[in-house]
Write a structure and sequence with these properties.
single chain; alpha+beta; Creatine Amidinohydrolase, Chain A, domain 1; Creatine Amidinohydrolase; 2 domains; three-stranded antiparallel beta sheet; 17 helices; 19 strands; globular; metalloaminopeptidase activity; EC 3.4.11.9
Length: about 475
């Protein structure tokens, strides 16, 4: 990695250029500063077309405008976060901002100003790096260090929103009058400029609305989710192909293999990959991925590719590392498969959101009673939640631009709500027998199984977006043998 620039540009005439401590150059000569101002070609992009979701983002802004008439609405993208010293984490714009604009640029802010019966939208962005004051090559975030930014004119063409310089926004917000709401938690500078104009209660109403707006996906979103799932399927195939190599290394080989697919075909992984082999499968969010991968154990792989537009898949398969389930592994796997089948069948328009969870939990409770691990009857087990010692988690969640999408929605519209066409959710029952659980026979201990698919609610039922990945035990074994080839 190249050393950071030695100096930062002047931000005001009276402020001298700051030197970087331990930089190798003592300063910038007048001759070099003058030389760097000129001799650069015009790189303005003049044939840009709107981003693919421009029509959808415009409709989303219109719905937002209608919900909060006469109020100024401020939705920030967020800022870079320091990883260590002078390196930053990869930036990911806030979901609310990306959902409404299609833009993914750090420091961006969408502002909806009340006008007439609606609002006038402006997207505030950093313009191209300044060549006159040397910012483009002296500043650590200048374009010669981190890459070219779009000009404001280019941004207007891409996103269909008038664009302005974000460096002027804080002052404008401080001078603003009338009711204002902001999406909190992303840009401290924006919030500070509005500190005497906003309330937590009103801002939470804005966040809740934007979360609930994503409950039902439009056609663009459904297409992106299918892209994410299709790439994820290929990522699972990649992993199966290298299982022999994995046995000589660790779970990290699995994580890295899947990550390659995510970066080649998408933006990133949608969440930290869970590559849990053997007893690690009993840890629900095992993301250390540093354990051994042994023949005869199971691999629980919970992973999802995130598309370039931030939509993520969330798929889990539990695979026999040597390609064949043992008798006890298959017994537990088949129980989870049967529970998932019941859960998927309950995903229907007009059904209660909780129905798929209840259906899957009932099957698992029946199995636990049948195996003598908990005393029945089943109704008693479910009423007391006794099955949860081994089922642990809910059976699914909404899916979209966040892996646990719409999390800020009101309970009555989400968990206590009704399924509608266009909703997309996961169905993911599991059974987990901890290695130190003395209440179950020894042969069960250390086995964890989860099967997860991404299910779209349709007008007449549902569609399994991840159906290309086999689920039934015999089909999983045949698929693995075919992929290994």
């Amino acid at each position: 990695m190249a050393e950071e620039p030695s100096d930062t540009p002047e931000t005001a005439e009276e402020e001298p250029i700051k030197q970087r401590k331990n930089g190798l150059y003592p300063g910038v000569s007048d001759e070099l500063a003058e030389n760097m101002k000129s001799g650069w070609a015009d790189t303005e992009l003049r044939d840009l077309r709107p981003v693919s979701q421009a029509a959808e983002t415009a409709a989303r802004r219109a719905a937002l405008s209608a919900r909060f008439p006469g109020e100024r609405l401020v939705i920030p993208a967020g800022n870079l976060k320091t990883r260590s010293n002078d390196t930053e984490y990869a930036f990911r714009a806030s979901v609310e901002y990306a959902y409404l604009t299609g833009n993914q640029t750090e420091d961006g802010v969408l502002v909806l100003e009340p006008k007439g019966e609606g609002h006038e939208a402006t997207i505030y962005l950093l313009p191209r790096s300044n060549r006159e004051n040397g910012e483009f090559w002296l500043d650590g975030q200048g374009e010669l260090w981190v890459g070219r930014r779009h000009s404001l004119t280019e941004a207007e063409k891409l996103y269909g929103i008038p664009a302005s310089d974000v460096r002027e926004l804080a002052g404008a917000l401080r001078e603003a009058t009338g009711p204002v709401r902001v999406v909190r938690g992303y840009d401290a500078g924006v919030e500070a400029a509005l500190t005497d104009k906003i309330t937590a209660e009103r801002d939470e109403e804005l966040r809740v609305f934007l979360s609930e707006a994503r409950l039902v996906k439009d056609e663009f979103e459904i297409g992106e989710l299918q892209k994410a799932v299709d790439s994820t399927v290929r990522g699972f195939e990649d992993v199966v192909k290298v299982l022999d190599k994995v046995e000589a290394t660790s779970e990290r080989y699995i994580e890295g293999t899947f990550f390659l697919r995510a970066r080649v075909e998408g933006n990133d992984v949608g969440y930290g990959t869970i590559a849990a082999a053997g007893p690690h499968a009993c840890t629900l969010h095992w993301v250390r991925n540093d354990g051994p991968v042994r023949p005869g154990d199971l691999l629980l792989l919970d992973a999802g590719v995130e598309t370039h537009t931030y939509y993520t898949a969330d798929v889990t398969r539990t695979l026999p590392i040597n390609g064949r389930f043992s008798e006890i592994q298959r017994k537990i796997y088949d129980a989870v498969y049967e529970a998932q089948e019941a859960g998927i069948a309950a995903v229907q328009p007009g059904a209660k959101y909780r129905d798929f969870h209840d259906a899957a939990q009932r099957v698992l409770a029946e199995k636990l009673v049948e195996w003598g691990l908990v005393e029945g009857p089943v109704e008693r087990v479910l009423e007391l939640g006794l099955q949860r010692r081994w089922t642990l988690h809910g059976t699914g969640h909404m899916l979209g631009m966040d892996v646990h999408d719409c999390a800020a929605a009101r309970t009555e519209t989400y968990v206590d709500g009704v399924l509608e066409p266009g909703m997309c959710l996961t169905v993911e029952p599991g059974l987990y027998f901890q290695a130190d659980d003395l209440t179950v026979p020894e042969e069960y201990r250390g086995i964890g199984v989860r099967i997860e698919d991404d299910i779209l609610v349709t007008e007449d039922g549902n569609r399994n977006l991840s159906a290309a990945l086999p689920r039934r035990a015999d089909e999983v074994e045949a698929w693995m043998a075919c992929v290994k080839g």
